[in-house]
Write a structure and sequence with these properties.
Chain lengths: 135, 180
């Protein structure tokens, strides 16, 4: 039953992510379940907290995902170090987003390292993706 | 004349080349035109390497022409991508290899490390050539928000992303053209 709930959540999200990224999220979901027995599906609200909260980043300075991506995912962001414009993260504003698992895994790894100075857990990654999908 | 020059730029770009010169005197123009004529067009493989380099490295900053640094510098850069100027810029192994091969095979043959007392430059702006060429640029010109740092070549060199750094193409935000 729980599994059904997860599946239906993903099918609702199909519009916001390509089949391969949905598949990737299903894998993350399985891993999250093995790492945390009380895991009950990804949560955009938890993802928002991960995305908007400030942490000591890789450089030992306060950093948040929003430092570069801003708090409105439909807007362009700006690399806080180089000033280079970053296209919107929201799949509705930018249909290229969440279409390639290779891109998604690359940036999740890099950006968790930059902001949290560690890699994200499967649950954290899925929560962030759920948040991005909703925006 | 302009048309001829544009064509030569196109030819040089096809070869993944870069116009690296400080002064726009006529003699140099002729030299560069000649080198453009002999430049070989890129193979499909080179084209896809350049596209990958531009996409991956250009996601965060200008995809600097590999000719700006010698092989040693690119080797060191590619070995330390997980901490690339304080950022995780790691790549998957296959892309890493493609980009490394492209950078190294197009690196500067003119290794200026002797001038740097043995240090291996990671930043192009640390190289003696760069320092010399920018010696008259004031700090204010570089640190203003429209430029931010020397890393943003294209903030002033309007054709930098195309590999052209002619003096006449320089427009410094809030200052204008560069006059010697």
């Amino acid at each position: 039953m729980k599994y059904l709930a997860i599946v239906s959540m993903f099918s609702m999200s199909l519009m916001a992510a390509s089949p391969e990224v949905v598949q990737y999220m299903n894998e993350l979901s399985k891993t999250a379940k093995t790492e945390n027995s009380s895991f009950n599906g990804f949560d955009a609200a938890r993802g928002k907290e991960i995305f908007t909260s400030t942490h000591t980043g890789k450089q030992g300075k306060p950093m948040a995902c929003t430092s570069c991506h801003t708090t409105n995912l439909a807007n362009s962001g700006k690399n806080s170090l180089t000033g280079k414009v970053i296209d919107p993260l929201s799949p509705r504003a930018n249909p290229q987003r969440l279409t390639s698992t290779k891109e998604v895994t690359k940036w999740l790894k890099r950006n968790f390292m930059d902001v949290y100075a560690r890699e994200g857990t499967a649950q954290e990654k899925g929560d962030v993706l759920a948040y991005i999908m909703k925006n | 004349m302009t048309k001829v020059l544009n064509l030569s730029i196109a030819a040089l770009l096809l070869a993944g080349g870069v116009y690296l010169y400080a002064d726009d005197d006529e003699r140099e123009e002729h030299e560069h035109k000649r080198s453009a004529v002999v430049a070989k067009p890129m193979t499909p493989q080179e084209k896809s390497s350049v596209a990958l380099y531009t996409k991956e490295c250009g996601a965060c900053h200008m995809a600097y022409q590999p000719q700006f640094l010698p092989k040693r510098s690119w080797d060191k850069t590619m070995k330390t991508l997980d901490n690339h100027f304080g950022t995780d810029a790691s790549l998957d192994p296959q892309d890493h290899k493609t980009i490394q091969d492209y950078l190294v095979s197009h690196a500067s043959k003119n290794d200026q490390m002797v001038d740097m007392r043995g240090a291996v430059a990671l930043r192009i702006s640390e190289t003696p050539y760069f320092v010399r060429e920018h010696r008259e640029v004031t700090k204010k010109m570089v640190t203003q928000p429209e430029v931010k740092s020397f890393a943003n070549c294209n903030a002033c060199h309007t054709q930098a992303t195309n590999g052209s750094y002619r003096e006449r193409e320089i427009r410094i935000p809030n200052y204008g053209r560069w006059e010697d």
